[in-house]
Amino acid sequence: MSNWNFIPNFIIFIPLFILGISSLVMQVVLARVFVVSFYGNEFFIGWILFAWLSCVGAGSMAVRCVKGQWRGLPLLISCHLLEACLFPAVILGIRAGYSSLTGVAGQIPDLMPAVIFSFFVVLPLCLVIGAHFIAAVEWGQEFYEGKDDRGFAGVAYFYEAAGFVAGGLVFTYILIGWNEFQGVSLLVFLNVMVVGILISAGKMPVKKYFLAAAGAAACLGIMCLIFSEIFNAESTALRFPGEQLVETRNSIYGNLAVTRSAGQLNFYESGLCVGSDKAGVAHEKLAHFTMLAHPDPRNVLLIGTGLGDGLPEILQHKPRKVYYAALDPAMIDVAGIYLPALRRMLEDKRVQLLEGDLRQHFMSLPFDLDVVILDLPSPSTALINRYFTDEFFREVRRHMKPGGVIGLQVTWPPNFVSGPQADCGASLYKTVSRNFSSVLVLPQDMLLVLASAGDLNRDPQASVQRLKDRAINSYFVTPAVIVDRYATDRIQKAEDLFKSNSTVKFNADLYPRGYGYNFIGWLNIFHQNLAGVVAVGARTDFLCLLVVAGAMLLLPLWIVRMDARERWLGLTAMVTGGFSLMSAEVILIYGFQVFYGDLYDNMAWVIVAFMGGAAAGTLWGHRYSSGKFIRLAGLHAWMAVYFLCGSVWMWLAAQGRWMPPPWLWISAGAGIGGLAGIEFSLVNMLKRKGCVQAGAVYTADLIGSAAGALGISMFMIPVYGIYQTLLFLTLINIILAVVLERISAAGKT
Fold it and tell me: Residue 94: what pLDDT?
């Protein structure tokens, strides 16, 4: 490389660098837009990563369909121009898609159409990005040939990964405060700039057509910048058909939106409707039933959505202190603008607002709480699920007096209970029962759960008398309502249903069964047969899964011809490396969400850590003169060590023994990224009988990554939990390391 003059260096690397920036920014933006537009569920983070990676892989393979003069520089320029046009189109398409799939604001979309739609809406952009990398490699190889016998693909991967790192910095320090269309305008300008550089450097007979297309793309970027607020407001409003969008803003936990319909203000947290300005029956019942279950509630902790929740009802019981924490603290600021009553309540001297993430600052709370009220939606997302786990209830119990009472509720059908709903309820019941000796369920239109470490009074007359003694003014909670709720035969039926369900286990931070059961319940709403199949799959024995994966990795040993073994094993190693890299990314994303909560604001940093490590690893791997299977064996042995150490790290965090700072948690991704980057370089260096090609290795990496994104987020973590998932990743890398060592010994390489 030192023999090149400066200009060719700059020209062949900048398309890859800008590709990395564009890919990082669009991945983060699309993940956020999808989570906000489709139910606020982290499932779509895994799904969009899967869709992105698999479609990019398809695009890299589709390059072979381009023939003749359109290969090389013309294809590279075309990719830049198409990406510039597709960036804003994809965002518009996603936001418009929600209204076409549901037609009602806040309605849960049918999962399968949403999944299919989200895949095809990103397909054109991802195909172009996949073709972009191969086109850049093929064109750059023309300059690189003869300069270094190790090939250009590894160097190209490094510069793309370096672009990912730069994209993370740009997003975090520049674009984080911009709306989506302002960010898109920057990407458009960057890609048009590259087109201008490439046109100036190349001699092409169709240059004038590219210049015209670049001018049109530049005009699109100018429009996205000038009219960004209008485009953002109008496209965001598409998520709320039949409602008027009043305000939308981003916080470190998600997106907040306020709409108006029929004289009512509605509040949304990452696409999920969390309440309105009209007092809710559920909030009132939860607050009063829980407060009445305690003889003298003096110190109260209320965890809610930020809309006041049951705060007015709680204050009627004349507590001495009410600690109020919100799922997203920024919602309190937003709601305070539109709810004057909330502002007045927060000015009450008895109310202390807890800022920041409650689970991070739990130790600042006193250890004499009488009542804890958990007024949150059902654990349908990882962010909410962290307030329904064994670890959370254990910490709550530590801060409560011996006779303290905790109250919570989740969605529950008043009559017929489906299998997934029963599983959700049973998991919650068993989780609460692990930490509180006395548990009472009061099913009706909601499943209200009361629990205490002491003796919980099940006599409704005690609550009725307290209602009268405290002079509580309530329209929905009356003596008759209390007696009816305590005396219904649904209580015994629900308890029998929960206790007899031996297949369901408790919910935990690193074993998010509640999140998984809610996902199956979501699927069951629209596709009962498919939900049944998924539920059966969720009961697959871990050992069976490990045996199947091990057999696939051992397959190269059964292939007789040595060259076929090496060809198969080289790509298998890259698939496993990509799978391991993306699995680690999904696990760290999930763990960061569980322990810190503010993933929305840090997602770019997570990706930067992985791709930064990959960039450094690719450069390091390029130092070797050739790729050898024994070196690949060593890499996968180190990957096994990485995942083994990861399980210890997670255990220490879950037990509260050691909680690393967020920056260190995020940086942990650089380790596996470095190993995957080294592997990409080494696999590309394998010279045996055309064993590998740049396109095939890149595609294998993406296939493995796509499988990791979907399989880990959708299946492994909810079904087996973090520890068994890490064990699975450890063992498959050990198996592959052994296979690679055996092949190396047989081939003397």
Answer: 86
Beta bridge partners of 449: 408, 441
- 7 falls in which pLDDT band (50, 70, 90)? very low
Q: Which of 29-43, 166-180, 233-247 has the highest mean pLDDT?
A: 233-247
Residue 520's φ and ψ, nearest 5 degrees, are -65, -40
Selection from 37-46, 550-559, 570-579, 682-691 with the highest mean pLDDT: 570-579
**Span 594-603, pLDDT tens digits:** 888 777 677 7
What mean pLDDT is predicted for residues 58-69?
78
Q: Tokens 């990882």 belong to which residue?
A: 382
Query: Residue 343 forms beta bridges with which residues?
Result: none
Reading the block at residue 71, the tokens are: 């290969």
CB 410 within 8 A of CB 443: no
List CB contacts of 144: < 8 A, sequence separation 6 or more: 12, 151, 152, 155
In this structure, which amino acid lies at residue 585? E
Query: At residue 530, what are phi and psi to the nearest 5 degrees?
Result: -65, -40
Q: Is 245 helix (H, G, I), strand (E, B) or coil?
A: strand
User: Is 161 in contact with 677 (CB distance < 8 Å)?
Assistant: yes
Answer whether 183's CB lies under 8 Å from 604's CB: no
pLDDT over threshold 90, residue 441: yes
String of DSSP letters for 117-157: HHHHHHHHHHHHHHHHHHHHHHHHHHHHTTT-TT-SHHHHH
The sheet with strand 351-354 has its strands ordered as: 351-354, 321-326, 299-304, 369-374, 400-411, 446-452, 438-443
CA distance 448 to 440: 8
3-class SS of residue 709:
helix
By the 8 A CB rule, do 412 and 443 touch? yes
Separation between Cα atoms, residue 460 and residue 469, nearest integer Å? 14
Cα dihedral 735, 740, 741, 745, rounded to 10, equals: 140
Distances from the Cα of 418 to the Cαs of 149, 424, 429, 524, 617, in angstroms? 63, 10, 16, 9, 50
Q: Does the structure show a pLDDT above 90 at 281?
A: no
User: Which of 283, 518, 535 has the alpha carbon at shortest distance from 380?
Assistant: 518
Structure tokens at 398: 């530590």
On the question of pLDDT at 687 being above 70, the answer is no
Tell me the C-alpha distance between 263 and 273, whole Å: 16
